[in-house]
């Protein structure tokens, strides 16, 4: 199974805070720094779970950009796309004792990928193309995402979209995103309840996967639906759990096999600091 994901490769700074933050105070914490970004996370988990993964996106030639690109390839992911000047994006995730996180994101050059940057050869043998929501709701990367869908369809690949962020949906506009989803006709859409509420309802897609965090997930398809409990886990950090879940689900099989693989990957992810395996 070859899965391509188009989007961002960022520097993740995950800070597990051991005590509540207060102005002027010094809180003890544990910090992890490494590669991140939704598309990169999905690719890393695909490779970890035994699939073949191709990341498509811009890489920065800055020291931080080289660091995260090297980490991605060391994880068995093929990295495709231009290398450019400019700062790599950075995400700072503050994680509390419950594992919940608050994120501050600077995407750097990640959103600058353009349709003309794509090489049709990157999609040869591709079985799945996965698009994080930001790849459809930011410019100019949205043009690259739309062209990628056409290239993927041309080789018989299926397309999936993760809605990713209720705040991004509200900023972009629910009606605009619904129109864009209708245009690309994804085979699978992932979203949590807040994201679906922001979208104003469920998109008309063959498979809708509702992520419910500690309550597991629900998979809906024409004529059926089924809920799957979360796998047992001691939650350390929820960062990247949705990306791990998507990677597991996209590796195929029946809806039951895909969902169970996804919740198992999510459980593995939340048991450690950071979004990657």
Ends apart, CA distance between termini: 19 Å
Q: How many runs of DSSP E, i.e. beta strands?
A: 15
**What global shape is seen?**
globular
* Main CATH class: Alpha Beta
Q: Return the CATH architecture.
A: 3-Layer(aba) Sandwich
Total helical segments: 9
Q: Which runs of at least 5 residues are low in confidence (pLDDT < 50)? A: none
Class based on secondary structure composition and strand pairing: alpha/beta
CATH homology group: Ribokinase
Instruction: Describe the sheet with the most strands.
Output: 9 strands, mixed
Cα-atom Rg, whole angstroms? Answer: 18 Å
Please tell me the total number of domains.
1
β-strand amount: 25-35%
Characterize the quaternary organization of these chains: single chain
Give average pLDDT, whole number.
94
- In CATH, the topology is named UDP-N-acetylmuramoyl-L-alanine:D-glutamate ligase
Residues in helices, as a percent range: 25-40%
Strand order of the largest sheet: 6-4-1-10-11-12-13-14-15
Order of helices and strands: EEEHEEHEEEEEHHEHHEHEEEHH
